[in-house]
Fold this protein.
Amino acid sequence: MRRLLFAVAVFALAGTLVSGYALRQHYAPAGSSFCNVTTTFSCDLVNQSTYSEIMGIPVAAIGVVGYVAMLVLAMIARGNARRAAWCIPWLRAGAIGGIVFSLILTGIELFIIGAICVLCVASQVLMFAIGGCVAMLPRSSRSPGPES
């Protein structure tokens, strides 16, 4: 269990960095992102579209907050079984919410904006990795064992 929680923490840290860069690019001048490969693969088209904010909050900022929350929960859960019993359900809920959110955003990218953001795809892969790790965690963490 500790290894899975460590993996969640590593993926969440990577997600924080990816989302942080996307947030920086949200406010940067157009054309400044490394992932503007073509009009189909363009972070700027996605990150500066009307769909890049929810009620004035950049989607990338929501990603940063979500990934930081997952990182903190994973690190707390690694502490002991009692804390893990409290944190793991929140990690599961966060992973499910993050996956659903990223799938909705990918649908908007593909079918409405018509461009794919490489950073968004990286974030989605990281969220699926977190979801996979969290899915393998035991339902009850009362006796995690010495190295689980």
The domain at 2-136 is CATH 1.20.1440.130 (de novo design (two linked rop proteins)).
